[in-house]
Amino acid sequence: MSGDDWNRQELARFLRSRRGRVSPEQVGLPTGGHRRTKGLRREEVAVLAGLSPTWYTYLEQGRDIRPSTQVLDSLARVLGLTEDERRYMHTLAHGQVANPQPLEPELAAGEVMRGLVELMRGHEFPVYATNIYCDMLAWNPAATEWYDDWGAMPQEQRNFLRWVLLSPLARDRLPDWEEDTRDLVARWRSEVARWPGDERMQARIAEFAKASPAFTRFWREHDVQEHRALTRVINHPRLGARKLRIILLLSPDEPKVGAVIHYPMDA
Questions:
Q1: pTM for the whole thing?
Q2: What does the pLDDT average to over 85-89?
Q3: What topology is assigned to 111-264 in CATH?
């Protein structure tokens, strides 16, 4: 059995199991009369989700059909799925999660990663939290030493990509400035694709394009790079040039925020 076949069969089994745990009264259906089916019937799920009963039956049979993200979210609503279950269903159907939602909506944006940065306050190399717009949300003292004094900047200018593109200090701190900047833009392009229709993201693209000819040039090249670990040479004002490895940590709790951690190559 191929991977795709297994995923379709697993999705079918998963839907059947979730359907069986939802009672008619939970979704406002009458409960009178004898019901041979535990939980909801297939046709009831289909009607509540706005689907053809035949099409939904095919889905539960593991046939080779491709449910859209909207259909999956509609099924998640009808079946009362948790966010983890909804993500699992999307992964089975499409190999990735669509429209990830914070698992802890009561948390302030960036709280988890801010806490991680604070925990690593004494780390001798940069650690900072940034969002999908490249805004600097939190940083340790080493990030100030190795890059710039983010706290001294107006809040609207505390943006890592903006700093790299526009600050004269960035070209001093990053001896491979052109290569590093092209890489940053390529990584950001892959992030932008994950949030289609985000007006703030589109406004940020327009802002960078207006302010930086280099950004416009790199953006038009359409290079794409995923957020894998990388190495970067940074000129520390006292220690000189050091090659650091950089990793990005992400949490399902905060899909729009990540923590960036630096450590020396010989660590």
A1: 0.71
A2: 88
A3: Beta-Lactamase (3.30.450)
